[in-house]
Amino acid sequence: MGAGRVINPVDSIHYEKLICGIGDHVNGTNGFLLALGLALVGVGNLGAQEPQKPAGEQEAPKPVEKPAVQVTEPVAGDPLFAPLAVGADTLKVKTDTWLVLSFGPRALIYPLVSSGIRMAKPNYNYPNDWHQGMQGYGRIYGNEIGTKVASETARYAAAALLHEDYRYRPATETGFFPRTLHAIGFVFVDRSDSGRPRLAVSNFAGAAAGGFTANLWLPDGFNDASHGAERMGTRFGGFAIQNVIREFSPEIFRAAHELHVPVPHLRIPDWWTKDIQVARGPGL
Predict the structure, then answer these.
(1) Domain containing 182: what range?
(2) Which of 59, 97, 189, 216 is the residue whose CA sits 20 to 30 A from 147?
(3) CA-CA distance, 96 to 100, in Å (whole number)?
(4) HEC profile for 58-115?
(5) CB 20 within 8 A of CB 267
(6) How many domains does the chain have?
């Protein structure tokens, strides 16, 4: 855990669940606006300065406060958080990243929620067996898992073959708009294993796989090239949202804490990802 950024005690998993919803399964526009809005609140709060004391005036002694607790970033398998670049991107690290993003706890659990939401607001253009009863629920859940695994597998394969590191690197610039542009631009230009900027082929491969693989099982009328291209664009949007949320995650957590947002509790066993170093970023 890094020692650079510290916030008050708060369970980051809980705030991630509330703020980010169901990750890359959430509506792209709403999720993006939510991310930017919370980031703006956080940036504004961080920019506030304490008023300066008049010259010669002595400050009253401050009460002793307990040190704030460092909180780890959400694990890489959290659906809306891009994996964070920590250390060299070896083949083992690439493999661990793929395993967590494809089969980690939240990668399997969140689609259960998103599939339920889609059952509540079904696409009636689908056949009945895609939106009625447990059979429909199972089909929707299987589609969510299948497209996610296909996308992450294609990213992993391309990155391994081309020595590409698509893990996110936060911006060195300051300011809301430069950081946002950096996060979005990282979808298209990431880094090589040696750290040099390069075309993000792995993201193109992942978006294409996530968009077109579903043609193998989706019903007629939704398994054509035009729908595949639409889903591919949605995947690119998901990558951008992941990067923006990762970029502004410290501000988002602070804003959520200062707003006293009530959050439900969802405990996931640590043993599921505890041995995978790439799954955790530095302290906030």
Answers:
(1) 12-39+74-276
(2) 189
(3) 6
(4) CCCCCCCCCCCCCCECCCCCCCCCCCECCCCCCHHHHHHHHHHHHHCHHHHHHHHHHH
(5) no
(6) 1
